[in-house]
Amino acid sequence: MPGPSRHRRMSGWRGRAIGALPRSWVWWLLLADVVIWLLLGTVVQPRLGSFAMPYLPAAAPLLVLLLLLVVVLVIVHELGHLLADLLLDFRVLTFRVGPFLVATLARVQLVKLGPFTLVHTRSGWGTKVERHRLRWDVRAHAGSVQSVPRTPDRLRARHAASIAAGPLAGLLVAVVPGAVAVVTGNLPLAVLSGILALLALAELIPTGSAQGSWSDGRWLLCWLLHPERARYHLTVGTLRAQRALGERPRAWGDERWIDLAARAPDPSCADDDLRGCQLAYYLALDHGLAARACELAGRAFELRPRAVPSARPLLAVEHAFCLARFQADPVAAERVLAEVEGSEPGPNPLDLDRARAALHLAAGRPAEALAACERILGDVRIGDASRGLAAMIRELVEAMRDEAARLVAVGEAAG
Predict the structure, then answer these.
(1) Nearest CA-CA partner of 262 in 304, 293, 219, 291
(2) How far apart are CA 15 and CA 9, in angstroms?
């Protein structure tokens, strides 16, 4: 299941997972299958004595084999997703099976086995032991692959194929004991094969978790019945994942992602509408698409009632910045900033200074703009930034600083 993670969250990073503990119906299904398997002995055996002697002794090793094959099923399921992701041009971020985890993030690669971690950064390899994790992990049976598509090309076909690859790979595990059962005529082994097949196909049940994750089946059903909705959720999740990794917006992908994220296709995606619009704004801004960025900043400002109170000042500041910087409308920008400056909570001082710098430039006050830019660049969070949104903001502020310095020099020369 590719996308931002299989078992993906509707509104965020989607990741697929099989057998996660909260999805207790998987374990109830396994338990029910085992009970049916044992009761089957009473049906095929004419007498209780014959069931007790030949069937139960054979059942014990087969139960052990079943548990081992379930582990193999989880591994093969996730390997199916992993292989499909690699073949279909997805960027794989993490691969996990039980306590084993491999992650390739922005500037860190790590291999983790339970509490033991091997980490590679720019400074080299290192190891650490998480002592507080030296205990049983109730999620140690889980498996997941987290990935994001590198491009929006043929997104529906690629993503659906990657999702389906996991259950199809899992069916291969069920085929092996089934083939042996056909050759040997072993009924318990045939039932074991059926149990594994049911577990492999269980991910095709269209469900979701309380955390917002979607099963493989729900993704496939959404792609079949509501492709625009699935495409939108995948797009927003992909951009969120890239931002969470600390990538600057223009590294998230090309300009085609902007239109895919800018507007929710229907009301069922309303929870992601503002988030998608804001991500599309940053992407347009870092690609130098000023007009598109202004449009998206304005729409995000209109949607601000949907945002949590702490996020609303930023939406207003970005709108004011675009009004002043790209539309040369200091009056409208001033009106927006006056409203947000009196709000509680207030805007981030650095964001406010950036909008004020743009306003001063648009209003013909380059000295004030230069002072605001210097304050922003003097903060190490912006002035020394080389990644993420901070790197984009640094370049925007540097451009305003250079313009303001040039205007100040021209004014001094003219004076």
Answers:
(1) 293
(2) 7
DSSP 134-172: -S--TTTT-EEEEEEESS-TTHHHHHHHHHHHHHHHHHH
Residue burial 116-146, b: 16+ Cβ < 10 Å; e: rest:
ebebeeeeeeeeeeeeeeeeeeeeebbbbbb
Q: Where are the domains of the chain?
A: 8-88+151-224, 246-414
Question: What are the tens digits of pLDDT across the range 221-267?
Answer: 999 999 999 999 999 999 999 998 889 999 999 999 999 999 999 88
Q: Considering all CA atoms of the chain, what is the largest pairwise distance in Å, rounded to the nearest integer?
A: 112
Which residues, at least 6 apart from 360, have a Cβ–Cβ distance to it below 8 Å? Answer: 366, 368, 369, 372, 404
List of residues 6+ apart from 195 with CB closer than 8 A = 30, 33, 34, 37, 66
| 8 A C-beta contact, residue 347 and residue 390 | no
CA–CA gap between residue 339 and residue 325 (Å, rounded): 19
Domain 246-414 has CATH 1.25.40: yes
Alpha-carbon distance of 146 to 27, in angstroms, equals 23
Tokens for 398, please give them: 């540097």
**Rounded to an integer, what distance in angstroms lies between the CA atom of residue 12 and that of residue 235?**
9
Q: Residues with Cβ < 8 Å from 17, sequence gap 6 or more?
A: 5, 6, 7, 142, 143, 144, 213
| pLDDT per residue as tens digits for the range 119-150 | 877 777 777 766 554 444 444 446 788 899 99
Q: Which residue has the tokens 């903060």?
A: 379
- 160, 166, 168, 169 alpha-carbon torsion, rounded to 10°: 140
What amino acid is encoded at 127 in this protein?
Answer: T
State both tokens at 245: 């990794």
